[in-house]
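Colleagues,

For the teaching module next term, I've prepared a clean inverse folding example: a structure given as tokens, and then the sequence designed for it. I'd like students to try predicting residues themselves before seeing the answer, so please don't circulate the second half yet.
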């Protein structure tokens, strides 16, 4: 089984809800649940990969505070290598997620010390790496990676490794981020957006038009997460929809896409080809709460 390296964001997740409407300014509402846990795209993916038995490294930073130290020890305990995980003087980032009655979510986050996770930092951690599967995720909130020299780094890494990119949804909108992501798409082996992100990157209003645009404009393959509809693989010349079984016991959907990424990369790294049904099963396990004990604080 090949080595997997996850590069990206980690943070403290505070998840509250569900709510059916925002409270008026100066007022308070009650919710059924408030949780605190290890979060961020990189953290979620690394936790699942370690549980699947993959040799996995995480390249990230956190604050040199109680949360950062706790995260690093937790990763060690569950089998994630932390050689590329640096603690920086300052506070670990925090994201507040508000869940809504209809299943949608809203997020409020801050970057704090995450600007230290820049292109030079990642390059220093990955120098000499060969034969690995490298996932870059969360760059939507990592301003240090939203630089032109990221493309040069990815092209160099891709010569000896398999590169995956999950863009995330940018807090500052798509006008600039769309261009930044588009410049990277021919420098990765697999683009891993969700349905809304693919439409935003291709500047299309339907998934059909987005798929056609991607096929026309880009050389790499894409694996598009579509929630309960399954996933869409866009190859070199065509696309294929993979349906998934609907979960009957939804506990938590935050991080489901990250767990799908883990299942997808696991099958690629162990079998040399993706197993989409397996990736769906892993995502369903996450939704149904299998991994909660590993991430709760």
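(Answer key — instructors only)
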């Amino acid at each position: 089984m090949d080595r997997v390296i996850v590069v990206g964001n980690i943070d403290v997740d505070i998840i509250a809800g569900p709510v059916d409407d925002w409270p008026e300014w100066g007022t308070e509402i009650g919710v059924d649940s408030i949780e605190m846990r290890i979060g961020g795209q990189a953290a979620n993916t690394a936790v699942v990969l370690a549980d699947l038995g993959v040799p996995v490294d995480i390249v990230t930073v956190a604050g040199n505070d109680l949360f950062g130290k706790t995260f690093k020890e937790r990763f060690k305990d569950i089998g994630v290598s932390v050689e590329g995980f640096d603690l920086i003087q300052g506070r670990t980032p925090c994201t507040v997620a508000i869940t809504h009655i209809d299943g949608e979510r809203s997020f409020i986050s801050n970057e704090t010390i995450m600007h230290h996770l820049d292109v030079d930092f990642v390059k220093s951690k990955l120098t000499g790496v060969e034969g690995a599967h490298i996932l870059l995720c969360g760059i939507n909130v990592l301003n240090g990676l939203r630089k032109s020299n990221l493309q040069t780094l990815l092209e160099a890494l891709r010569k000896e490794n398999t590169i995956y990119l999950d863009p995330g949804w940018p807090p500052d909108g798509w006008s600039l981020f769309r261009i930044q992501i588009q410049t990277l798409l021919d420098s990765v082996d697999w683009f891993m957006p969700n349905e809304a992100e693919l439409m935003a990157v291709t500047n299309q209003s339907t998934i059909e038009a987005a798929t056609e645009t991607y096929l026309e404009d880009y050389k790499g393959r894409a694996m598009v997460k579509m929630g309960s509809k399954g996933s869409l693989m866009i190859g070199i010349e065509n696309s294929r929809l993979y349906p998934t079984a609907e979960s009957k016991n939804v506990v938590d959907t935050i991080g489901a896409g990250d767990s799908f990424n883990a299942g997808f990369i696991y099958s690629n790294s162990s079998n040399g080809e993706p197993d989409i049904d397996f990736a769906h099963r892993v995502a369903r396990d996450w939704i149904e709460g299998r991994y909660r004990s590993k991430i709760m604080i």
